[in-house]
Design goal:
By secondary structure, the protein is of the alpha/beta class. The chain is about 40% helix and about 15% strand. The site of pyridoxal-5'-phosphate has 16 residues, from α10.
């Protein structure tokens, strides 16, 4: 499989090149040159384990990694999951919840970042190269990225977070990792300051090249690809119904875009319900065809507090008939005018039903799921569940993706259900552990010196 950019300036990349490039060098996103139709293979894949299915679903998109080597790499990616099925499907009051939070950091990001870590490690070994990952996090991504690459030869990871502004649990999930290749940097500033530092350092192209800096952001194609797998997995767990719907708690549009790819590959997935919190740019788009930026609001489902969804451009590319010129023009208009709209919202537009959930409804949803079905949901999953119930068609199975374990968001769960027992042994185990972090002032030169001294 070869990869090209949604803006037309890059083409002919191999899978490994696409993984190492991350964001396309013309500012667009990388997509495969074609999407394989696997509907004739579905019967053969029945009964496979999660990692076996993952190898099969992803293989047509790879091409430049030996098949047996790739299988082993995928097997290693899911060995640290705490559930034998990797992603179990549980029936909660007639909605099927797919639990994607059994990885090392208890958020669905592990599904992709465990795989990406193995992939980086393989490609770097082949090329005898090194990679220094620099990232900024306000929560889930940092810990999942660290867990994906800790202890891996040839890789160092530097993760910045705003001092005192991530939740105590999220901070411990990062700072208790003591591997030599992991550097946690607490920045004297806000999350925006961290992101600005990141941009400034990445914009110094000679520094970036000299120190082989790379990113693990959610636009990496390998992250989307790893997420396509569990849509197939869900269908087998449901015993292969004629059709099914899936509700996806959405932020950067990575998770739900993977569902779009699965449907394009021939999976009998009917509808994707896009669930947002009050940051509803995507919900508004799929209701009106108008993509218009608003201000970011802080909600009780913080991993979805996003206005501009970094993976949206991939969907747009397909919606615009794979026309890179139109796609680039739409994005340019959005950048200059903060608003752009589809001329003709036909195409894949109606594959999505989109809706938004308020903070109050999120708390009520957590309460309702607990009192009616004795199931504890984290706030992001609760956003999804609320809309899964609202948009459920009684004739078609409805699945809701559970994106985090409730114990990760204990404050909000406690607010919704005071006194509820909300623990996870792997989070409790972090409490007494040694931690390591370095405090750094908000200054790009200080950050560069720190990196220089360690590389
Ligand atoms: C990242 C994240 C999301 C949003 O996923 P996207 O792929 O960005 O749409 C939802 N819930 C949780 C818990 C997350 O960590």
């Amino acid at each position: 499989m070869k990869y090209r950019s949604t803006r037309g300036g890059v083409s002919g990349l191999s899978f490994s090149q696409a993984v190492m490039m991350g964001l396309a060098s013309d500012g667009g996103l990388l997509v495969p040159e074609s999407i394989p139709d696997v509907s004739a293979r579905l019967a053969d894949w029945q009964g496979l384990s999660y990692p076996e299915l993952a190898s099969e679903v992803m293989a047509p998109f790879v091409g430049d990694i030996d098949e047996a080597v790739f299988k082993k790499l995928v097997l290693r990616s899911y060995k640290n999951f705490q559930h034998p099925e990797v992603a179990p499907l549980v029936n909660v009051g007639g909605v099927h919840i797919l639990e994607l939070f059994h990885g090392p950091t208890l958020a669905f990001k592990d599904i992709a970042l465990q795989f990406l870590g193995e992939l980086f490690s393989h490609i770097l070994t082949e090329q005898d190269a090194v990679l220094n990952i620099l990232g900024a996090t306000s929560g889930d991504t940092g810990s999942a990225a660290i867990a994906g690459v800790r202890g891996k030869p040839g890789i160092r990871i530097f993760i910045m977070f705003p001092d005192g502004r991530t939740s105590p649990i999220q901070e411990r999930q990062m700072t208790t990792v003591l591997d030599d290749n992991v550097y946690n940097l607490s920045i004297d500033g806000s999350f925006d300051d961290c992101q600005n530092l990141l941009k400034t350092v990445f914009n110094d192209l000679s520094f970036k090249e000299t120190y082989a800096l790379g990113a693990v952001n959610s636009v990496n194609w390998a992250r989307v690809l790893a997420q396509v797998v569990y849509y197939f997995w869900t269908w087998y767990q449901l015993k292969q119904p004629a059709e099914f719907d899936v509700t996806v708690p959405t932020g950067n549009f990575g998770n739900i875009f993977a569902g779009f790819i699965a449907k394009r590959m021939g999976l009998p997935l009917r509808k994707l319900v896009l669930a947002t919190n009050e940051n509803d740019i995507l919900a508004r788009f799929f209701q009106s065809g108008v993509y218009e930026r608003g201000a970011v609001r802080f909600s009780n489902s913080p991993a979805m507090d996003i206005q501009v969804a970094s993976n949206f451009e991939r969907y747009l590319f397909y919606q615009l008939g794979e026309n890179a010129t139109d796609c680039a023009a739409f994005m340019k208009r959005f950048q200059t005018e903060q608003c752009a709209s589809l001329v003709e919202p036909a195409g894949f537009f109606d594959w999505f039903t989109a809706d938004a959930v308020s903070d109050t409804e999120t708390l009520e949803s957590i309460q309702g799921i607990w009192h009616e079905f004795n199931y504890l949901a984290d706030p992001h999953t609760a956003v999804g569940f609320h809309l899964a119930q609202k948009h459920q068609d009684p004739k078609v199975p409805m699945v809701c993706l559970a994106t985090a374990h409730p114990a990760k968001f204990d404050d909000t769960v406690e607010t919704a259900i005071p006194g509820v027992n909300n623990h996870h042994p792997s989070l409790d185990a972090l409490l007494g552990l040694e931690t390591r972090k370095t405090a750094i002032v908000d200054d790009p030169d200080v950050l560069k010196d720190f990196i220089r001294a360690r590389c």
